[in-house]
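Hi, here's the filled form for the chain we discussed.

Project: internal
Contact: R.S.
Residues: 155
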Amino acid sequence: MDSYSNGITATVTLLLIAILLAECLFFQFGGTIISVSLSSFLLVIYTGAYLFKPGSYEITDDALIIHMPSKNVTIPIQELNKVEIIDMKKMKRTKGLFGTRGLFGYSGKLWNPQIGSSTSYATRKNKTILVQTSHNEKFILTPDKPAKFVRQLKK
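And the returned structure, exactly as it came back:
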């Protein structure tokens, strides 16, 4: 994760702990339903963000695998239509439709006027590549070495 994402994750984690501790005190003084509901809601969001955080990328002979704590996303190599490094300027007008924007990374559904709809499995805001399949599915990834990653996928 980049420094922004690390900062967001640390801040949200500390806020969650503070809120849960405050909830314990509030719970003792009679706010049971509100306290339990808020705590549950926050824990579900936090856990969901963690479970779908992008972990690492793996290229095998027949697939690109995106590892996450909850499940892996597998994209068959033969379905890859386009793989390219994306200039940061091209990503400037990207809008998040659903997902996280810094908590454990940058994952979820995006829309960009030049790229269209895509799914992000990014760990940072730079070193961005676009992977497009023959089914017009688009994925935004951020490998450590984008040029090497693109070369491996184009073999």
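Let me know if anything looks off before we file it.
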